[in-house]
Amino acid sequence: MSREYLNQKLRRKSDAVSGKGSNVTRSFTVLNVDEGIYEAECSINAQYAGVAQGAAEWSVRLQRLHGGLSDGVDVIWLDNGCTRLAILPTRGMGVWKASVAGTPLEWKSPVERPVHPTFVDQSRRGGTGWLDGFNELICRCGLGWHGAPGTDVIHDVDGNVVSEQFLSLHGRIANLAAHEVRVEISDDGGLSVIGVVDEASMFGGKLRLTSTLTTHIGSTTFEIRDTVQNLGDASAEVEMLYHCNIGRPILGEGTTFHIAAEEVAPRDARAVENLDTWTTYGQPTSGYTEQCYFTKPISGDDGRSLAVLRNPAASKSVGIRFDASTLPWLTLWKNTQPEADGYVTGLEPGSSFPNLKTFERQHGRVIALKSQQSVTFDLSVTVTTGENDTARLIDEVTELQARHDLKLHTAPRASWSQ
């Protein structure tokens, strides 16, 4: 079957009448399990969407990988003419990697290619088997839990144990596949990929993630808006953390981290060792053991916080903005071990800290949803590729910090760390 025929077939599936005024949005379903739709290798562009080309060529394409541990993994390639993203519907709508104005946005994990969830045993290695598939630029940790592995114990008001359940590292969502994916194109240059993923189990509740990743033609920014709804009859708990992982060329010796925060605390004794240099990075170091720092960011007038990673030359940066109302915390993960083992840092906005869920519940950081209730998380990623734009982003952090003194704890904070 020819690519041309597939493209025409896809276009006929378009619902092209949503939107207000002159800004019409056209919707194309590329994957729907219930309706038996799977449009592999179809390329949606201006010609087939029936919209103006704009200043740059763009396209959205679904591809299925074959062979090895990637066998059966679907990839949505979204190219806005400046930013190219690889989105993984098979892995909870995570973002595998990106390229922005020619700058790679990724990291080199020992896990080189996307791993199909079939090959990830999350119970392996004491509940840390999640790491067997870990190589994304952005992967979600959640939905029911997202922290360290261990036995979650729930007590009643009298202190009696109600239930005990072993929870593996970082939750299930990154190893669950979307059952519906569609692409939306708007006349104002907006390109969106929407995926629906269910985290459900008999006698275990049902949470639904509806994820929308949006960018605009020619932009160096992309946005993620996730809504998690409790579709079960009983109340349900939700935790969400966005593991945003960055390696070279942004990360290197002399790279700096910038965030406006009310408080910062080392996670443990290991993090205390380098507290005086917690915002700077060294070269790959043999024997390096990861360090984490917990932060309470300051938000601006728009309700968003901003974290920035700047390269050693101060000529490029990655800025992550996130809605502080539902993502009020950020964990900085420093992992400057040798290149072959994964030289990387993680900027991780979260609804709570990545501790065992029992601990986070005790300190009131676990979201509770009644039946049919939902919660929405928003974040965006911006890449600067020039000194002036990079300086402006850093200045924005500095201006935010001026609103509040930073309290840097010299030891782990009891209510933040187990």
In short:
This protein has 418 residues and is mostly beta strands. The protein has a single domain, classed as Beta-galactosidase, Chain A, domain 5, CATH 2.70.98.10.
Descriptive report:
The protein has one domain: Beta-galactosidase, Chain A, domain 5 (Distorted Sandwich). It is built from seven helices and 28 strands. The strands form five sheets. Strands 1, 2, 3, 13, 14, 15, 16, 19, 22, 23 and 27 form an eleven-stranded antiparallel beta sheet that branches. A seven-stranded mixed beta sheet has the order 10-18-25-24-21-20-28. A six-stranded antiparallel beta sheet has the order 4-5-6-7-8-9. With 418 residues, the chain is mainly beta.
Structural class: mainly beta
Please state the CA-atom Rg, rounded to the nearest Å.
21 Å
Helical percentage: 10-25%
Coarse morphology: globular
Span between N and C termini?
A: 57 Å
Would you report the number of β strands?
Answer: 28
Overall tally of structural domains: 1
Low-confidence stretches: 1-13
Topology:
Elements (H helix, E strand, L loop, with lengths): L2 H10 L2 E6 L2 E10 L4 E2 L4 E2 L1 H4 L9 E6 L9 E6 L3 E6 L5 E7 L2 E3 L18 H4 L10 E4 L8 E6 L5 E7 L12 E7 L3 E12 L3 E12 L4 E10 L5 E3 L2 E6 L9 E4 L1 E6 L2 H4 L18 E7 L6 E7 L6 E7 L5 E8 L2 H4 E8 L6 H6 L4 E3 L4 E11 L2 H15 L5 E2 L10
